[in-house]
Amino acid sequence: MEYFDQGRELTCSQCGRQEIANICCSNGHYVCDECHGKGVFNLVKDYVIGCKSKKPLEIAETLMGYNDQVPMLGCENAWVAAGALITAIRNEGSITVTDDQVLEVLNRTAKQAIGGYCGLTGVCGIAVSIGACFSVILGAACPKDQETATTMRVVAKMVNTIANETGPCCCKNFVRKSLTEAVKLVKEHLSVSLPIVSENIICKHVERHPHGCRKEKCSYFGKDTVIVKGENGVLKKYDEFFSSVYSEGVIDRKTKHLIALSASLAAGCEP
């Protein structure tokens, strides 16, 4: 990836849109945010609307596991964080959260979470996603007082949490750390208790990071993890197999996932 100190006009290689941007691949190809996340928004929305889990990290890990659709880096991961937190709060049941509010959180996140701006402005879209959850629940708006102040303070804490995990930035780490911190803030400001278990998470995305995994600097890096590089990497082959199995064909992708889920439940297999 190439990052420019000053934005330049680039043309999206998928839709042809021309716009000022700061990031492209090393071969000069540029993909706009709309094309970059095409299909992922609906994936997240459809999953969380039907999800029954009260565990935000469990929801997030499931969604981030869709390697063929959710990229390693990018604000699609902010949609994951937003959906995971607001859905867990809804499912916990102490306060009323409607499906329309879940969708509102996702829409607000999509408007302000822009890929690469963690470095370009210092505000990661994942911090914004947590703020969107609090804003919708509290009813924050420009004319409001403490509702807006609380939302801003939550976002500030998210930014600080994420800032401790840079070098290079990793959206998977940011999602996990933000949700872990957000659970504490949900308890403090909303009096909602959500389960959180993060110490046992071992990241399965180490080979996918285009800038290189932080390894031991990241608390989700397993001490026994072996990073296999090259065309014959085990995880690379698995990802290729996964993408092939779930590619569109006679049976659409969603139906394939439902069949796999049904088979898993029938076999008593748990994630």
UniProtKB/TrEMBL annotation:
InterPro entries: AhpD-like, DUF5714
Gene3D superfamilies: AhpD-like
Biological process per Gene Ontology, one example term: methylation
DUF5714 domain boundaries: 44-221
GO MF: methyltransferase activity
Keywords from the named record: Methyltransferase, Transferase
Protein name according to UniProt: Methyltransferase
